Structure formats: structure tokens, C-alpha cells
């Protein structure tokens, strides 16, 4: 009897909280969610020497953030440093760092991803941003190694997010970004069969979406939103229908004309 009452109580609490969460989501769909102020906040950007990293640095510079720029390319990173100063940043720190080498990370900052979190926990303040990919949500033909790394990044970031939820660390936010292919040169030559649904993305557009997602504390950011619909179909359709859908979307041939940044010449 006591067990039954407990189960009923837990169900009612769950339904009540779910209704509140649904109404909150509905309200913020109609009314834009307030954007937080990041002026004076320390923003560490890896891969800041070019592409999406540089674009994000420029946007946070205009928002008044303190910028810490990491990149393996010293020249590119210093160029980004110059550009963000011209954009209005007053405190910028550029470091040459190969983030694939643990000793490099220790040398530059004496910290790793794992050691950022304890400081955030102590202050109950921070925002973790993971740049994954649509290839971290759905397997892609001829892209197994890249998909594996992006699935891992997504899983790691989501697991850390769940840990902050369980520990009730409301001041630590997470944003997991999963864009379709971006025109940064990494996927030079790749094509899309349905550009009206899944277009190749302009870097500036993606950077704007990421900054907006961070400022509004969005947890999952799929760019474009159609990716979310594709994930929904993947979860409910029979496998054969899901495969037919992927074929229609051109997912099997997206890499056929791939050139790659280092193979153009």
C-alpha cells in the first residue's frame, strides 16, 4: 500500500513538473528568451585561429567578453587576436596549443577540460559549449571516423550535462551544437541533394546561431532545425523506411565529390 502511494505521488509530481516545463517551453517559443550578459566573462575558444573559432571570437569581442584564444596555428591565432582587438576587445590572450596533445594543454594552461569543471562547480557559474555535428547524430557513408569522433563529443558533453543536472548545479550551463556541413573548407566538394531542407551552411550564419544559443542557454542546437525532424523520423520509422529517407536526402552520396582542405591542390 505504501509503495503504491509512493508511486502515485511520484507520478503526480512528474506530471506536474512536465506540464510546467511544457508551458515554459511554449511561452519562450512565443516570447523570445532573455539573452544573458557575457561582458567581462572569460571565453576560451579552441581552434580560434581560423574558421568558426575566429568568427565566434569576433562576436564575443563585440559583446565585451575576455577572450582566451587557443590554436595550433600561431600565425592564424595571432591574426585573430589582432582582429578581435580591432573589433573592440580590450583583454585578449592568445596561446599556441595543440588540443589533441594532453601535454600541450597542460603546458599552456595547466588545465584540461576536466579541471575547468571543478572551478565552475566551486563558483556554480560557467557555460560548457561542445561543437559536435549532424554527423554526431546520424551515421554518414564514407565518414565513419569523423562520425565516431563527433558521436563521442556529443555523448561526453551530454553526460557532463546530466551530471550537472543531478548535482543541481543550475549555474553551469551546457550547449551542444550539431550543424550540417559548414563551408569552412573542411568539407570542400561535399554536396547536398536537398539544399532547401539541408543546405551547406555559411560560417557566419552558424556563428550567429551558436552565440544566440549560448546567450539563451539553449542545450541542444541543431542547425538547421530540420535536423531535429530527421532525428525524430529516425527514432520512429522502421529501419527500411529510415534508409529510404536517408537515400532520398542524399545522405549516401554526400561525400562522393569530397575534395578536402588538404587535397584541393
TrEMBL record:
Entries under CDD domains matching the protein: 17beta-HSDXI-like_SDR_c (cd05339)
Pfam families assigned to the protein according to its UniProt record, in alphabetical order: adh_short (PF00106)
GO molecular function annotation: all-trans-retinol dehydrogenase (NAD+) activity
Gene Ontology terms: biological process: retinal metabolic process; retinol metabolic process
GO cellular component: lipid droplet
Gene3D superfamilies the UniProt entry points to: NAD(P)-binding Rossmann-like Domain (3.40.50.720)
InterPro entries linked: NAD(P)-bd_dom_sf, SDR_fam
SUPFAM superfamilies: NAD(P)-binding Rossmann-fold domains (SSF51735)
Superkingdom assignment: Eukaryota
The protein's name in its UniProt record: Short chain dehydrogenase/reductase family 16C member 5
Amino acid at each position: 500500500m505504501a509503495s503504491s502511494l509512493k508511486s502515485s505521488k511520484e507520478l503526480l509530481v512528474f506530471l506536474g513538473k512536465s506540464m510546467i516545463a511544457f508551458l515554459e517551453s511554449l511561452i519562450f517559443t512565443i516570447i523570445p528568451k532573455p539573452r544573458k550578459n557575457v561582458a567581462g566573462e572569460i571565453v576560451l575558444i579552441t581552434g580560434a585561429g581560423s574558421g568558426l573559432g575566429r568568427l565566434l571570437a569576433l562576436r564575443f569581442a563585440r559583446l565585451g567578453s575576455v577572450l582566451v584564444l587557443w590554436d595550433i596555428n600561431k600565425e592564424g591565432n595571432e591574426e585573430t587576436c589582432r582582429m578581435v582587438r580591432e573589433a573592440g576587445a580590450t583583454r585578449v590572450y592568445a596561446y599556441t596549443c595543440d588540443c589533441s596533445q594532453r601535454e600541450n594543454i597542460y603546458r599552456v594552461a595547466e588545465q584540461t577540460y576536466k579541471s575547468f569543471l571543478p572551478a565552475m562547480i566551486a563558483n556554480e557559474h560557467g557555460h560548457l559549449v561542445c561543437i559536435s555535428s549532424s554527423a554526431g547524430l546520424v551515421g554518414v557513408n564514407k565518414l565513419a571516423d569523423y562520425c565516431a569522433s563527433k558521436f563521442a563529443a556529443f555523448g561526453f558533453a551530454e553526460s557532463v550535462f546530466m551530471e550537472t543536472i543531478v548535482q543541481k548545479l543550475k549555474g553551469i550551463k551546457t550547449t551542444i551544437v550539431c550543424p550540417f556541413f559548414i563551408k569552412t573548407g573542411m568539407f570542400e566538394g561535399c554536396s547536398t541533394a536537398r539544399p532547401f531542407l539541408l543546405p551547406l551552411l555559411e560560417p557566419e550564419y552558424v556563428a550567429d546561431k551558436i552565440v544566440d544559443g549560448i546567450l539563451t542557454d539553449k542545450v541542444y542546437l541543431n542547425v538547421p532545425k530540420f535536423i531535429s525532424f530527421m532525428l525524430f523520423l529516425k527514432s520512429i520509422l522502421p529501419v527500411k523506411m529510415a534508409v529510404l529517407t536517408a537515400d532520398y536526402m542524399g545522405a549516401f552520396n554526400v561525400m562522393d565529390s569530397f575534395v578536402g582542405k588538404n587535397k584541393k591542390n
